[in-house]
Amino acid sequence: MRELKILGVVVFFTVFTYIGVNTYAYSVMKPAVAPADFQFKDLPRNDKIGDASRGAEVFMNAGCIGCHGLESQGIPAPMNDADAAASFGVVPPDLSNAGLIFDSHFLAAVIKNPAKAMLNDHKFNESNPHPMPNFYGLGGDIDQELADIVAYLQSIAPEKVSDEQVYVDACMQCHSIKYTGLMSNKDPILMAKYMGSVPPDLSMFIRSRGADYLETFINNPQKHLAGTAMPRVGLTQAAQEQVVAYIEYAGDRKKDERESLGIKVLGFMIILTILAYLWKVKIWREVH
Known about the structure:
With 288 residues, the chain is mainly α. It folds into three domains: 32 residues; 220 residues, no CATH class; 28 residues. The protein contains 13 helices and no strands. α2 packs across α7, α5 packs across α7 and α11 packs across α12. The longest helix is centred in the last third of the chain and has 33 residues. The chain is elongated.
């Protein structure tokens, strides 16, 4: 009976520590933030119906191909990565998949005013302009032209891309994942100058931060790190889930196996405890 009382005390303080102290520590060290906003409610809404054919003309004539490539359409990037990084600080992404993985309202907003849409207008201003210039249109209805460009990007986008490809398009402009061999080929000195520091390798980020943190951080980095130079990525919910899935694959691909093994270990320990207690009772009964 004495052993059961000791076990009860141990269980009580274990549960108290886990639920009480652990919860308090998380509230201080990892404050709660608003959930991810995949509607991008802070951005202006552009409800114009776009025309893909007109969007192709605007895309070509507005100078977009001066920085961005469309490999799926046979339009290569105008500069190699080294020259682009030296010119802009970062390599402009290929937009072949942009219409699929990025939210349409975000796309329109980021074309119109990239610093504001990506929430790093605290870093880029008139004295330090964003590498991607604002879009002022071709002289017509600017909102219609934006809607047309978005419609064009959506029309050329594939129906589906792999988790790895979404990661490449959304994150590998800055971040590497050495565990899977996806290495950003950007000059770290130029990246540090552009971002303020060298963006970290994300191989173990899922283990150190967790999926919940990644969900809100990718959607809006300012919620966790106010003033960070990391831009809001603007992914759709489905695309962001693919990014998180790939980062989890890279850093925690044994998660399911590990979690199932944990349950088996706990079961083993419970059975072992019961057997040890019964054995102890038997021995002491014979002694007395």
